[in-house]
Amino acid sequence: MKWFSISPLSIWVLVPLLLFIPAKDGLAKKSNLGFDDLVDFSDLVIRGKVVNKVFYKDDILMDTVSRDGKGGKIHRTETWNETLTDYEIEISDIYKGEYKKPTILLTVVGGVIGDVRLSTNNSFYLTMDEHYYFFLLYDKRNHKWKASWHRQGVYEEMEADGNKYILSVDGFTVIDSKGNFSSNKKTANAQKSGIAELEPRIKEGNRRD
Q1: How many Cβ atoms are within 10 Å of 69's Cβ, its own excluded?
Q2: Which runs of E-coded beta strand occur in the chain?
Q3: What DSSP designation does 19 have?
Q4: 20 contacts 73 by C-beta, under 8 angstroms
Q5: pTM (two decimals)
Q6: Which portions of the chain are predicted below pLDDT 70?
Q7: What is the number of domains present in the chain?
């Protein structure tokens, strides 16, 4: 594995030689998938406010894929000791699924231990007391809620030219008027969808389930 350190803060970025995201998450890499697929993939779709966060180390199960040197792939399930962040989300709206408690814990790989920040290409960081839209998947093996498709599973509400829309926490992805994932910079503000336009698609996803 390769590690890179960037000052002034010791920010460590892990670049895995193994693809360790679950195979199901690989669906997000297919360019023909859109917002409806994200909804179908998610167990729970909510809006909520970040009210707490905790950094810690823990063992979690990961699906890994490596090359066998002969043009094939080797699939394994391995235990990795990871730096994790648990975000406590105070739920204000539920658009899909059922959840009875007032708060939910979202677990993200990456975080800060001491003065060292560990990130992967799927990590993201949320701001305390800010509201987000969450598309969540329950990881039964690790007993944790995670964001569907990682950074494409959490959005914040933005406004431009009088149009409200949602932008993924990677800062690059919006949903256009046809329900496709699109580049924020390349999409006209009037074509970017907000939750008002997307809520009927989420309800349709409930009926598909």
Answers
A1: 7
A2: 2-6, 10-15, 44-67, 73-96, 103-109, 111-113, 116-119, 131-139, 144-147, 154-160, 163-168, 173-175, 181-183
A3: B
A4: no
A5: 0.82
A6: 1-31, 207-209
A7: 1
